[in-house]
Amino acid sequence: MKIDCEDIKLFQIALEASKNAYAPYSDFPVGAALATGNGIFTGCNVENRSYGAGICAERTAIVKAVSSGCRDFKALAVAAPKSPDPVSPCGICRQVISEFCNDDFPVIFGTSEKELIKVSIRELYPFNSLEKLKDL
Ligand code: THU
Question: What are the entry keywords (predicted)?
Answer without folding.
Answer: Hydrolase, Metal-binding, Zinc
